[in-house]
Amino acid sequence: MTQGLFMARVRDADDLLSLARAARELGFETADAHSPHVIEGMDAALGLRASPVRPAMLVAGLVGAAAIFALQWWNSVYGYPINSGGRPLNSWPAYLFATFETGIAAAAIAGFVTMLWKSALPRPHHPIFEAREAAAITDDGFFLTVDMNDRQARYRAVELLRARPEVIAAEVVE
Asked: Mind telling me which residue stretches traverse the membrane in this protein (predicted)?
């Protein structure tokens, strides 16, 4: 849980990228960048790993599709076998529509739940909402926020602030 944030505003995307790299070099592992557009190379600068949403969706989709296919097959062959017109009991083409739809639904639900879980949502309050320039975060500002969960982080934040000339505004939000 976040006890406070160090928030620094910079002029443009290049300054934000260099500040993110500097924060990573200083040992901050929980830094986040806020900008009005995507910045190429920011994920690498922050040390972010690949999102687990896609693998979770793939696994859930395949498991959901396999489960509904197996359920339909068991139901047709063992549960309620109906010999209609001499057709085989395990006629798999009849199972494809429900298999496809269930696989897609399972993947979508797993993706949504994984996204919420990895984003720590829903989170009704975050310290960044208390910042003076919070409105500029989603408008036109470039910000770097760093979690300050221990006392050493405060000293490193001040060191980061003093060492970087591109920082135009900074504050500690509790």
From this structure: 56-74, 94-117
Residue 140 phi/psi, 5° resolution? -145, 10
Is-contact 34 143, C-beta < 8 A?
yes
Domain that holds residue 22: 5-50+125-173
Please give the pLDDT value at position 150. Answer: 67
C-beta separation of 130 from 7 below 8 A: no
143 vs 6: CA distance, rounded Å: 10
Q: Which of 39-48, 96-105, 164-173 has the lowest mean pLDDT?
A: 164-173
CA distance 103 to 68: 8
Q: What is the mean pLDDT of residues 91-101?
A: 93
Angle between helices 13-25 and 151-163 (to 10 degrees): 140
**Which of 84, 102, 118 is the last residue before a domain boundary?**
118
Global pTM? 0.75
Instruction: Give Cα 167 to chain centroid, integer Å.
Output: 27
Considering the domain architecture, whether residues 114 and 166 belong to the same structural domain is answered as: no
